[in-house]
Amino acid sequence: MEMGTETLYEELQNVLRKDQISTNITVREQHGRDESYHEPSNPDFVVFPSCAEDVRAIVKTAAAHEVPVIPFGLGTSLEGHVIPYDRGITIDFSVMNEIVEVREKDFLVTVQPGVTRSQLNKELKKHGLFFSVDPGADATLGGMAATNASGTTSVKYGVMRDQVRDLEVVTPDGSIIHTGNLAQKSSSGYHLNSLFVGSEGTLGCITELTLRVYGIPEHIVAARAAFQELDDAVEAVVSILQAGVPIARVELLDETSMVQANLFSETDYREKPTLFLE
Predict the structure, then answer these.
(1) What are the start-end ranges of the E strands in the chain?
(2) What is the pLDDT of residue 2?
(3) Could you list the residue range(s) of the whole structural domain that residue 245 is in?
(4) Where a domain ends, among 192, 215, 238?
């Protein structure tokens, strides 16, 4: 361990428990990549905070040493932003996975960043509610906010930015701020939610989120429609939306994608431009 790195490690031990800091090469390798094609690069340390005050202490220590800090959820993203090319400290939020409060009458929920989408929906189901953003992976909600995740339900419910009512964020100087409030309507102040959602961890570390949730529909119907031409499928989507049909999901697959879908799922769907609808 280099002299500067050793000093940083000692200072991290002063603000965190020893079991919250890892220099293990396997753990570092796990946090040196995501699901993208980008070349891996390992951090110097991986830390596991349990609360916002831990994150504040980590960020302040890193700032004093001018060391990069990289927030990390589950590493399911494809953008490469969690790969620490300048090394530094990776903050793994997996321990901060508490559902803080469900306000079912307000259709709001407050969670810590390490809560996953499936974990949240399992809890919300007890209240007849669900969280709408479905990026395809069981990502953490902090990571989904950091990347402005979308998914198949965006056509009806919108993307992650549309669901965030408030964020608790630790900024690079160690301050803890809130970017919004619980109000549905507010024209006062800057719209900080939209600034931090999608910032990919470059503006601060998200330590708590208040999110909008929805009632589970009484009926859900799925459909599949094949077309001779790709343009016909696109026009069909436009017509469906113009007609006001309450579509929650609509996905378009071209001929090549249908070939691969049949191979993977062992189905015999027509290998033509196809719409999958819900």
Answers:
(1) 21-22, 45-47, 69-72, 89-92, 99-103, 108-111, 129-130, 164-170, 176-178, 205-212, 214-215, 223-226, 250-253, 274-277
(2) 57
(3) 223-277
(4) 215
Please give the pLDDT value at position 187: 72
* List of the chain residues with pLDDT < 50: none
- Note the pLDDT of residue 28: 97
- How many other CB atoms are found less than 10 A from the CB of residue 109? 26
**Bridge partner list, 69:** 89
* Pairwise CA distance, residues 219 & 155, whole Å: 18
Q: What is the pTM of this model?
A: 0.89
pLDDT reported for residue 78: 87
Q: Are strands 45-47 and 89-92 parallel, antiparallel or unpaired?
A: parallel
Tokens coding 246: 């309450």
Beta carbons of 48 and 22 less than 8 angstroms apart: yes
Per the structure, the count of domains in the chain is: 3
Q: Which two tokens stand for residue 275?
A: 């719409």
Model pLDDT, residue 236: 96
CATH code (residue 182) = 3.30.465.10
